[in-house]
Specification:
This protein is an alpha+beta fold and 132 residues long. It starts with a helix and ends with a strand. Helix content is 42%, strand content 29%. α1 runs antiparallel to α2 (20-42).
């Protein structure tokens, strides 16, 4: 709709001799199309962390890439590096997954605490929370 209005106005100016407006309108429409393409590519980005019978399942989807990891909760370690951009790291038996890309610092901290409480309850207190 935005591109249609812009091109219609530019066509009107072109008919009155100001053809350069049409060039800028095409540039604008191309930029809007590229922005919409980037948005559409990442509109479904997500992280899903769920407790299942086999362990902690972490699914990460970013653009066209998708990964799924299953971590055993026995001996699981939750590392929360201190810092604004730091992610919550989940580690179990040599496998490490970072989550929290779509949360702010306070939400990551609360997520780590809630996950530690839930894992402690399920694994009989074996999960460890550490702040690096």
């Amino acid at each position: 709709m935005l591109c249609t209005v812009s091109l219609t106005v530019a066509l009107g100016f072109t008919l009155h001799g100001a053809w350069i407006i049409l060039v800028f309108s095409f540039i604008e429409s191309t930029a809007v199309g590229a922005a919409m393409l980037v948005y559409a590519r990442h509109a479904t980005d997500r992280e899903v962390v769920r407790l299942a019978d086999e362990g902690l399942v972490v699914e990460v989807t970013q653009g066209s890439r998708s990964s799924r990891s299953t971590l055993q909760w026995q001996g699981m370690r939750i590392d929360y590096p201190v810092g604004r951009q730091a992610l919550v790291a989940l580690e179990s038996r040599g496998q490490r997954v970072e989550v929290g890309r779509f949360m702010n610092e306070g939400q990551r901290r609360e997520f780590a605490r809630e996950l530690q409480r839930e894992l402690s309850a399920r694994a009989g207190g074996m999960a460890a929370l550490s702040f690096l």
